[in-house]
Amino acid sequence: MTANSPLANPADPADRGHLLTEQANPRSAQLDRLSALELVDLFNQEDQLTLAAIAGARQGLAAAIDTATEALRQGGRLFYVGAGTSGRLGVLDAAECPPTFCTPPDLVQGIIAGGAGALVKSSEGLEDVAEDGAAAIADRNVQAHDVVVGITAGGTTPYVQGAIAAANRRGATTVFMACVPADQVPTEAAIDIRLLVGPELLAGSTRLKAGTATKMALNILSTGTMVQLGKVYGNRMVDVAVTNTKLRDRALRILCDLTDLDRQAASDLLDRSNQQVKLALIMHLGHLNAEAARDRLAQHQGKLRQALEARVSG
Predict the structure, then answer these.
(1) Of these four, 89, 122, 232, 300, which has the most CB atoms within 10 Å of its CB?
(2) Where exactly does CATH 1.10.8.1080 map onto the chain?
(3) 38 an active-site residue?
(4) What 8-state DSSP symbol labels residue 206?
(5) Is 96 a catalytic residue?
């Protein structure tokens, strides 16, 4: 990205009206005249477009999953970078990975313009400094084996553009996630994901359809990556972190459902596995002690199904 690139500096607000996310939606021209029920119905109709947007981005999402999986498998990290609603959604998705998949907190990280304070208090002015986005990438020592996902509904957010450019310079794989067509805002990211939901019912309010589609896309990206990494067996989160009563109950239900154990026996097994559901399963189903079960899982990159199938075939 050159210094004279239109994406290197904040765009003139007067020039942003052409963006898909800034256009007025003709279907909501009488929004202020609708009853509460009519409002709900109209929102419901518009939200159907988020499903089509995800379908239209399926190739890019699949490429991002494959890329992130390989990066994390090789010791890399996954970063989400955004401002405002986009940044908050990235931080939310990253924060959910440790309890759901028992990942270390630094494996998937959310970076938001303005830092933690911007999660609870609007700090829109902080998104206009591309250098701050680049600095955030430098602060986290992003390397070639990392993946950086820039999230910006309108595509022009300087903070995100600065982060993408800095990550590219460092050799990281970059992903661009936006809700405007590529011909309106091009990108130099390696993977381009466009979630084209159309104009918002409330013109320019990208916390609506754009935010919904972005959350859906991040759900798919992070969950798909963790599935590929072996943190799921069937449709069960077998790497769930057992850190409270609710999650221990979930762990016990998984063990009971996937084995012939009653709840007390499952509880004893979970304790013997040091609260690790996947380890408990391989111990029980493979008739192994904890040490041998760990070795078996390690031989198969932590993938429970392969470890069990290898036992049967062996």
Answers:
(1) 89
(2) 245-313
(3) no
(4) T
(5) yes
Could you tell me the pTM of the whole model? 0.90
The domain 13-227 is placed in CATH, from the list 3.40.50.2000, 3.40.50.720, 3.50.50.60, 3.40.50.10490, at 3.40.50.10490
Q: What mean pLDDT comes out for the span 175-201?
A: 97
Choosing from 96, 124, 188, 200, the catalytic residue is 96
8 vs 165, residue with greater confidence: 165
The DSSP result for 155-168, as a single string, is S--HHHHHHHHHHH
Strand-strand pairing, 78-82 and 147-151:
parallel
Q: Which two tokens stand for residue 46?
A: 């518009």
User: Which listed residue (127, 131, 188, 309) is catalytic?
Assistant: 127
Whether 6 and 185 have beta carbons less than 8 Å apart is answered as no
What's the token pair of residue 139? 């602060």
Banded model confidence at residue 124, pLDDT cuts 50, 70, 90: low
Q: How many CB atoms lie within 10 A of CB 300?
A: 17
> CB atoms < 10 A from the CB of 212, how many?
20
